[in-house]
Write a structure and sequence with these properties.
Number of helices: 40
Distance between the termini: 67 Å
Helix content: over 70%
Largest sheet: none
Radius of gyration: 32 Å
Shape: globular
CATH architecture of the domain at 7-185: Alpha Horseshoe
Structural class: mainly alpha
CATH topology of the domain at 7-185: Serine Threonine Protein Phosphatase 5, Tetratricopeptide repeat
């Protein structure tokens, strides 16, 4: 325990806690110093001061003071709790959990420590530990519904479905009066319990449960969808048919409902004998409204030959008369079938050659625009024809603010390889409607593809906050605008400005860390609001977070840079291959950039001095050019920071395995390198890079100065024999 305080100092200590909670950090430090002036070794006050220092960004000083606090008050639950909070802030979750558990031994009744421990166990997916923590919290406060719900979630995530259901049922049994119809939290809990029963495989009982809440639950769509799904899985197809027809009455554009109805009717798209029945089915829905698109578009997926041609003719004629600009995007999935692609091309070319006055004013515009996109598409690319049709389309367009066709013209130019003109044309499209954010971002993207980084950030700055710290780039970082960060990084990589490229890729890496960290707020928020199913979906989504394309793309590029830096430490040096004149220009620009960075730093310091004293200080970017990232002494260690999440969460992407091989073989980790090759061979055994990497591994192993241990050699030889 800490040294006892007098009533005056005790009152000041309580003020320290309140000032920390209200984020009045300077006053908190001042008040803590008042206590420590009287009682220098008071551990609890030292711990609270450490917590405030950490919030001000003084992490090392905070840890030193927290250790001193523990030395002065080893048996203080406050000191251990604060120690855990400090470790949590630096993402050392294992040490944080140890500290929380020690604090709980000293004060088993502390709800705050128990709550913090439970949140951290949920964050680290320690479901077994979370079950124990939530059980303790339910026992301590059995009247709080959120505690029961959290206890059930812990069992559910631990795959103990019966226990999860039992917890929710037990709570329902404690209710003296039935919840009112307006109690949305209760309705959500009932649906959540139903999904648990279904996940356990007992669809019959789950269906029975839905009957009881069918009319009372306000989320009627969810109830109807679950009922249709359960009926289909139970093989009760007549009832499932009615259920899906009822859903289609509510939303006739939802393709999943049509898929369910087909299964309920026992119809198979792959069976050509059933195509007539399927066509009649979709026709019955199409006749209900002229505005519905799905029942007219879906049959094109399974029809073949003359039947497809007839249906495609009807569908395309309809949308061209309306002038729907997204027609090509809606049908291009059909182009994977060569015969369908040719049929569509013949039909639309026929439309273009006809006298189409009777088809309305939109017809010629829509047909020519479709053909421009058709010939620009990679499966049937003919850029000369694409240019011909897009120019004709632009000449037919009468709206001076409609940039759609100019955007497509720029895309065609890009596909021809002329990135400079594509960028100019996209900027001309932007000028047609300066108030449109979409075309503004498109223009910036094309500028980045043409390595116009400065122009791109100026273009993006037209729609960013003027007062943002760090200018437009700072605002884009705050908004986590990953497409821009990635394209900016790729542009710098192409220009051999690898420090800035790594800076952008690291920003994306950090954004995903922030997304994962943001779960902390939702572990408690979702329970307070009762949004249980959405919370469970979020947890499962976060478990595969780094499968996201933006993360994988940035990671592959960063790994590629670090691997090349390992091979050649001078790779990416600013003036490596320049002439003397270009070197002088580069040095002059570097000096200007440095002077500008120093000026910005001074301005930021001045702004900070005049800012409100109680605000949380933002960390300064001490390496705006990414020079420190480029100077790393261990490039492969840095590469592993990107690679490990890829191999853990995106192992079915062959590029992840190939990147893993490149890192592991340079680290002389031959078994992991072989493991990556084996995984890659299962994904695509004919991949040419796989064969090249396999040959490199064989050559490397054959040239080893010291032979591998016999057992490892046997394993490697056996697996290598299975590779191409």
């Amino acid at each position: 325990m800490s040294v006892p305080l007098s009533s005056k100092e005790q009152s000041l200590f309580k003020q320290v806690v309140q000032l920390y909670e209200s984020k009045q950090y300077k006053r908190g430090i001042k008040t803590a110093d008042q206590v420590l002036k009287k009682v220098p070794n008071h551990g609890d006050t030292q711990a609270m001061k450490a917590l405030i220092l950490n919030s001000q960004g003084k992490t090392e000083e905070a840890f030193d003071l927290a250790k001193l606090a523990l030395k002065n008050a080893m048996k203080s639950n406050v000191c251990w709790h604060v120690y855990g909070l400090l470790y949590r802030s630096v993402k050392n979750y294992d040490e944080a959990i140890k500290a929380y558990k020690f604090a709980l031994r000293l004060d088993p009744e502390s709800r705050q420590i128990q709550r913090d421990l439970a949140l951290l166990q949920a964050q680290t997916r320690d479901w077994k530990g979370l079950v124990d923590s939530r059980k303790t919290m339910v026992t301590a406060a059995p009247s709080v519904r959120a505690n029961w719900t959290a206890f059930a979630i812990a069992h559910h995530m631990a795959a103990d479905y019966q226990a999860a259901e039992k917890v929710l049922t037990t709570y329902e049994g404690t209710l003296k009066n039935p919840p009112p119809a307006t109690d949305l939290e209760h309705h959500e809990a009932v649906l959540y319990k139903n999904t648990i029963i279904a996940e356990s495989g007992d669809y019959e009982r789950a269906l029975e449960g839905l009957k009881a809440i069918y009319r009372s639950n306000p989320d009627r769509t969810a109830v109807m969808e679950l009922r249709a799904e359960y009926l289909l899985k139970l093989g009760r197809k007549e009832e499932a048919e009615k259920a899906y027809r009822a859903l289609l009455e509510r939303n006739a554009e939802r393709r999943a409902y049509y898929d369910g109805l087909e299964q309920a009717l026992g119809l198979d798209r792959n069976d050509s004998a059933q195509h007539t029945q399927l066509q009649d089915l979709y026709k019955s829905f199409a006749e209900k409204s002229e505005r519905i698109d799905a029942p007219r578009r879906v049959p094109l997926d399974f029809l073949q030959g003359d039947a497809f041609k007839e249906a495609a003719d009807v569908y395309l004629t309809r949308v061209f008369r309306k002038g729907v600009p997204s027609t090509f995007a809606n049908v291009k999935a059909l182009y994977n079938d060569e015969s369908k692609k040719q049929t569509i091309e013949q039909l639309v070319l026929g439309y273009a050659s006809q006298n189409n006055e009777e088809n309305g004013k939109n017809w010629d515009l829509a047909v020519n625009y479709f053909l421009a996109q058709h010939y620009d598409y990679h499966l049937c690319r003919n850029l000369e024809k694409a240019y011909e049709y897009i120019e004709k389309t632009i000449s037919l367009n009468t709206n001076p603010q409609d940039y759609t066709f100019h955007l497509t013209k720029a895309r065609i130019t890009k596909h021809s390889g002329d990135l400079e003109n594509a960028s100019k044309q996209m900027n001309e499209a932007r000028e047609m409607d300066r108030a449109d954010r979409y075309i503004n971002t498109k223009s910036a993207k094309y500028q980045l593809r043409n390595n116009q980084n400065d122009d791109a950030i100026n273009t993006m700055g037209l729609f960013t906050r003027k007062e943002a710290n760090g200018g437009p780039l700072g605002d884009l970082l705050d908004m986590q605008c990953m497409w821009y960060l990635f394209e900016d990084g790729e542009a710098y990589k192409r220009q051999n400005k690898l420090g800035l490229a790594l800076k952008r890729f690291k920003s994306i890496h950090d954004i995903f860390d922030v997304w994962f960290e943001d779960q902390f707020d939702f572990h408690s928020f979702s329970l307070r609001k009762g949004m249980i199913r959405a919370y469970v979906d979020m947890i499962r989504w976060e478990d595969h977070l780094r499968q996201h394309p933006f993360y994988s793309r940035a990671a592959y590029s960063a790994i590629d840079i670090y691997v090349k830096l390992f091979d050649d430490p001078n790779y990416g040096s600013a003036n490596g291959d320049l002439s003397d004149a270009d070197k002088k220009k580069a040095e002059k620009k570097a000096r200007k950039d440095k002077e500008k960075a120093e000026a910005d730093k001074k301005a930021a310091a001045a702004a900070k001095a005049t800012a409100a004293s109680e605000e949380v200080v933002k960390k300064e970017d001490t390496d705006p050019q990414g020079e420190e990232l480029l100077k790393t002494k261990d490039p492969l260690f840095e590469a592993m920071k990107y690679l490990s999440p890829l191999l853990a969460e995106s192992p079915l992407n062959i590029r992840s395995q190939q990147a893993g091989f490149e890192v592991f073989i340079r680290r002389e980790k031959y078994l992991p390198a072989l493991k990556c090759l084996v995984a890659a061979s299962k994904i695509d055994n004919a991949n040419p890079l796989l064969k090249e990497q396999t040959a490199r591994l064989r050559k490397t192993l054959a040239e080893l100065k010291e032979p591998l241990p016999e057992k490892i050699k046997e394993v490697i030889d056996a697996e290598l024999a299975t590779l191409p």
